[in-house]
Amino acid sequence: MSPSALTDLDQHDRVPAAPSNGVHLPNGHLSTTVLNGHARTAFLLDRNLHKSFPVVERGSGSYLYLKDGRVIFDATSGAAVSCLGHGNKRVFKAISAILSTGIPYLASTFWACEVVEELCKKLIDGTGGKMARVYLTGSGSEAMEAAIKLARQVFYENDPATRRVNFITREGSYHGNTIGALAMSGHPVRRAPYEPFLMDNVHHVSACNAYRQRADGESDSSFVARKATELEAKFQELGPETVIGFVAEPVVGAALGCVPSVPGYLKAMRDVCHKHGALFILDEVMSGMGRCGTLHAWQNEDVVPDLQTVGKGLGGGYQPVAAVFISSRVVNTLLNGSGQFVHGQTYQGMPVQAAAALEVQRIVEEENLVGNVKRQGLYLEKCLRSRLADHPNVGDIRGRGLFWGLEFVKDKATKEPFDPRLGVAQRVHDTAISAPFNMTMYPGTGTVDGFRGDHVILAPAYNVTEEDIEHIAQVTSNVVHQVFRKLGSL
């Protein structure tokens, strides 16, 4: 279907606000308000208290079935989470089996559980034995919080008076929502309300964003050399003996919209860190566990980190689970010192979490889904470029595997972003999720400097087909053409 054949729809105009009064149930309780298949919650502190959301009744594969009768193609796996799609019966069976034992939760302070150890062994095997241990927790933010503490403890174990107190991270990054994880992030708008609470020992260097930073005609090696020089300068500014480590996303997700590091970058950054005895830490919460066409994003160039966080694709949304992968260097420091990690969380290493994640990872392996991610990712890139590379408002199409972003610009030649007040990324999302398109697209803002810039992310399930990819690309093209045609008429 061509863009011109699609009826113009604007979510801002077509969805009426939900009435302030709820629906009273027979027992006197107040329910969520539902109008035209949309709901405004009455008791939940939702993401947006002024907005109503479509009500989902069930899911199957890549599809979500809504209360208003529509069927939505989930082209983003939620927030790059549902890597197997929805309603996988094998995972349900694995969860049911652990529930039937009566021990979905065990206090990790006192007990061990075979399914937890089995998952950790499988995860370490997936690194080819290049990592040594796994710390299991409930979310990506919690994993980053744990990694920050563990990184500091490595140096404290050797010398309680250590001067290693500084972290170096990057602008245009997002590492989570806890105070520690947010402090590591380089996204100004997300940091702003909590700036007085954030650690002052986190220092930033620029991102690795070839679209906006590479000079005309500049080679990968020259670009990487500039980045390495910048990181070295930051070490020298702080004092190399004061730096704990450097943190980076191999492919930047929500903050920048699937910006991959250029070849050679990760190795160059690791070499600077190791030259000064600091840790090289990778955040793969969004980009890891198969999302980028290798099980771990670092395996694309075999640049092994000292610490690594993973999350979303680990449990595929079937349980809240995330992890920190830990190198032998870090583990041996603990073994030769206190023998313990001075950190803990109530819901770490839960058997039900492990059972779900283990089954997800077995399915990914048995069905060669990482291979499918690589194949279908190349096809998605081809389809997106053939339809949108020449669009005057699509500045960049970038990504890896099934993790792709489109950055929108007002002027393609100058790369000038749109006025943030236009809410371009949200308009694209709202149009996509509405009839007749009925497809998810994950919006993001602050792409240029944390305040200006719009992008959307596509991150479908690992088991998508070529037909699915063609549908995603065509709907994306139709939505983009319609949104910018309407913007041009304002």
Automatic annotation (TrEMBL):
This protein's record includes keyword Transferase: yes
One MF annotation (Gene Ontology) recorded for this entry: pyridoxal phosphate binding
Region spans: Disordered: 1-22
Signal among keywords: no
Entry keywords, A to Z: Pyridoxal phosphate, Transferase
Gene3D superfamilies (alphabetical): Aspartate Aminotransferase, domain 1, Type I PLP-dependent aspartate aminotransferase-like (Major domain)
Gene Ontology, cellular component aspect: cytosol
InterPro entries, alphabetized: Aminotrans_3, PyrdxlP-dep_Trfase, PyrdxlP-dep_Trfase_major, PyrdxlP-dep_Trfase_small
Family the entry assigns: Belongs to the class-III pyridoxal-phosphate-dependent aminotransferase family.
Protein name: PLP-dependent transferase
Organism: Hyaloscypha bicolor E
